[in-house]
Amino acid sequence: MRLHRLFTTTFLLTSVVAAPGPSSGPSAENVKRVANSEAGPRQNKNYQLPVDTKYFHEPGGTNELGHYDIRYYAGSPVSYEERGDTLHHLIRSYLTVFRERNIETWIAHGTLLGWWWNGKIMPWDWDLDTQVSASTLTWLGENLNMTMHNYTSINPDGTEVNREYLLDINPNHIERVRGDGMNVIDARWIDVRTGLFIDITGLSEVNPSTQPGIWTCKNFHRYRTRDLYPLRETEFEGVKALVPYSFDKILTQEYSTRALTKTLHEGHQWVPEQKEWVKQGTVQGTIQPHVPRSLQPEGEPESGLKNLFRVL
């Protein structure tokens, strides 16, 4: 595991100074305002947004180009190596800033699946996914929308990494139903150097009177309160993170049990001796199919603390 020292500072780009939350709640203290123009495009200065109801826009045209914020897309995709490095620092900075400010968030979808395998981003992923409650999303919109975050990481070899990230809250987040489907992403944590991002979605009890304890996002993912809470503390990409309580149940419902046993995917092969996904063609020798520990013996994965220890 690589060790880093992290330093973050926050700059508020809106004209509103938020009142700090209670000591036990989220914090928006010590934010510094800068001009709104600071949030403007750094790379793609000539982009034109289409006339539609969508808030976040991507270059599009291919699956790959659907994973860049158009405002910061430099005109060509980053390399495989740079993508991995960018996503690594994206999630580390996001989790660090949210923890420092006592803002509850947890990893989700393919990012959660990567954690399940080895606590890392899966190398074929183009973006990352996290979730927050709708109440947290509202707080973010009122207190930290359009904030720029400076991040410094010191690598073990002494080299320094400096990055900058924009937290942008979709104003349509207040609508907790899908609508026309153009705004299912509620917020983004964006690397302004490349345009790569973390998608942040909110969960809410849309029908508390008829479906109490059922939490949904605007993309039809449904969870029970007992499957989400209490959140479990763990590590992801070397920093502290939270995952849902019944993470194994959530993963098998979303991806099927095969996603927890399949060892060849997207041109990569799981190497159990290294506990890593490696590009096919670079693996030496014959690799035997690997069944993760939480699925041994054969059967449905168990939920709860026992499975957490077995996976980790």
UniProtKB/TrEMBL annotation:
It comes from the Eukaryota. One of its GO terms (biological process) is glycoprotein metabolic process. It is found in: Membrane. Residues 1-18 form the signal peptide. Keywords: Membrane, Signal, Transmembrane, Transmembrane helix. Residues 21-46 are annotated as: Disordered. It holds the Pfam family LicD. Residues 99-207, 218-255 form the LicD/FKTN/FKRP nucleotidyltransferase domain. It is a single-pass membrane protein. One of its GO terms (cellular component) is membrane. Transmembrane segments: none annotated. This is LicD/FKTN/FKRP nucleotidyltransferase domain-containing protein. It comes from Hyaloscypha bicolor E.
